[in-house]
Each structure stands twice: as C-alpha cells, then as structure tokens.
TrEMBL record:
Keyword set includes Signal: yes
Gene3D superfamilies assigned: Tetratricopeptide repeat domain
Positions of region (Disordered): 25-74
Recorded superkingdom: Bacteria
Mapped TPR repeat ranges: 85-118, 181-214
Species lineage: Bacteria, Pseudomonadati, Acidobacteriota, Terriglobia, Terriglobales
InterPro entries: TPR-like_helical_dom_sf (IPR011990), TPR_rpt (IPR019734)
Xref: SUPFAM superfamilies: TPR-like
Signal peptide: 1-20
Keywords, ordered alphabetically: Signal, TPR repeat
Record-given protein name: Tetratricopeptide repeat protein
C-alpha cells in the first residue's frame, strides 16, 4: 500500500515537468520570438540591410500641420557609398546569372540604399521584378529609369519593356477611375518627357481626381511642379506621396527632392564673398 502511495506522489510531482517537455517552444528555429512578427518572405534573407531602415507612416514632421520642421525630417539615407553599392550590384549580377532572381533583387535593393537614384541599378531592378512576375514595381522602375537617364545605356530596352508591361498594368486596374487615371498618367508622362510641364500637370491633376490614391500621379505631379519652378507645390506633393507610400519605388527620389528644394528656392545658398574694389596701394617689389 505504502509503495502505491509513494508512486502516486512521484507521478504528481513529475507531471508538470513532463508536460513542459512535451509543449512546443514558442521561439525555436523557424518560429518568431514572442512580441516579434514573422519576417516577410521578401525581406528576411538579405545579408545586407536594405530593409533594416525603419519607415514611419505618420505625416512627415515638416508637413503643413507641423510647421517649423525642416526637410531633413522626411527620412534618412545610409551613408553614400559607391564602392559598397558596386559590390552589392556585382553580387546581384552573379545571382541573376545563376537564375536566383529573388537574391538578385535583395542585393540590387541594397546597392540602391548606398547609391540612391543610380540609373543602372534602377533598370536592373526593373528587369528583376519583371522576371519575378511583379509587373507593377517593374513598370515603376522603368519610368524612374527613363526619368533619370533619358539617353542612358538601357533606354531602348527600357522602352520595349515598358510597352510590353503597359497592357499588363492596365489589366490590374479594378475600377473605371483607376483605368482612367492610368491613361492620364501615361499621357502626362509623355508630356513630362517633352518638358511640357503645364500640360503634364493638368494630366496628373486629372488623374488624381479620378483616383486620389494613385501613387504614380502623385509623384509625377510633384516632379512636374518642381521642373516648372513651383517649389512650394512640389514640396507639398512630394510629402503627400511619402504619406501615401513611404516605402514606395519613388520614395528615395521624393526624399532627395525635398532635401534639395530649399536650395532650389534660393534658401541656404551662401552669398558670394565681397571682392576688393581696388588694388592695394603698395606694389610688390
């Protein structure tokens, strides 16, 4: 009897330990630790840190509702490093040749972090997105490439890819307003490339009336404002784009533009030093 009682007591004492051993851990390999969301498939394997920069979704501090802030508040860039960018691009090329387009995408994104607005990397990103069957970012990178390098090395190939992607992108439009906006943005982009800024502005404004959340229309309206010398309107519209798509294809270009807008308005440019009005009276011996 006493033996049976002893065994029963031991079983009761050991049961919590046994249950703990059988329960799966919540933060083991392949599982996210508590309080941390699982990594997304498109940003978990990069050995560099193109996705490490936090992106805020709140209105930029220099928005109209937050007066007194400067344009630097719209975001920060990694240290400009062409050497690091070239290394990342070289690795990306290797992955692309091996057919590993997902890895190539990550490394091209890393390269662009260290050298924003680099036309070659932007074109390569467009190609890579196309190979990954992601037409929307592919088309946007093509538009950005043609904006930055209208006579660049890959212009002909870029235009062919753009023509091939156009009907695919149009098919993605779900509503009549989105389809109308797509056509208007397309027309506005042509006018913008011809430096017909007023006509382009009208097209992009009409596109936003049809589809107020159209990212392309918002960014290119800001670009058209800037090229037409309407700096205040450009700044407000670039900020609208960043609120709409803080991590979008054109986000770095918008931030760079905002950083340059004060200088383009003539603010912060040092005056020329005063020059002497006459030569010194003493001549050199």
């Amino acid at each position: 009897m006493s033996r049976n009682i002893l065994l029963a007591v031991l079983a009761l004492l050991l049961s919590p330990w046994c249950v703990a051993q059988l329960e799966p851990t919540q933060s083991g390999r392949g599982q996210a630790p508590q309080g941390q969301a699982p990594p997304r498939s498109d940003d978990s394997a990069s050995s560099s840190s193109s996705k490490d920069r936090p992106v805020g979704i709140a209105p930029p501090a220099n928005d109209a509702d937050h007066p007194g802030a400067d344009a630097a508040d719209v975001g920060e860039f990694k240290k400009y490093d062409p050497h690091r960018a070239a290394k990342d691009a070289e690795v990306a090329e290797y992955y692309a040749k091996q057919g590993n387009h997902r890895a190539a995408l990550w490394r091209y994104q890393d390269a662009l972090e260290y050298m924003p607005n680099d036309p070659t990397v932007i074109y390569k990103l467009a190609e890579t997105y196309d190979r990954l069957e992601q037409p929307q970012p592919a088309a946007r990178h093509i538009v950005l490439y043609l904006r930055l390098a209208p006579e660049g090395e890959f212009v002909e190939a870029a235009k062919k890819l753009q023509q091939r992607l156009r009907p695919v992108i149009l098919a993605l439009a779900k509503t009549p307003g989105q389809k109308q906006a797509f056509a208007l943005v397309d027309e506005g982009a042509v006018l913008l490339s011809r430096h017909e800024f007023r006509g382009a502005i009208a097209k992009f404004q009409s596109a936003l009336e049809a589809d107020p959340k159209n990212e392309d229309a918002t960014f290119f309206l800001a670009d058209a404002y800037q090229q037409n010398g309407l700096m205040d309107e450009a700044g407000a519209t670039y900020r609208s784009y960043l609120r709409l798509s803080p991590g979008g294809v054109f986000a770095d270009s918008a931030r760079i533009a905002l950083q340059h807008l004060p200088a383009l308005r003539g603010e912060g440019i040092p005056a020329k030093p005063d020059l002497p009005t006459s030569q010194p009276s003493e001549s050199p011996r």
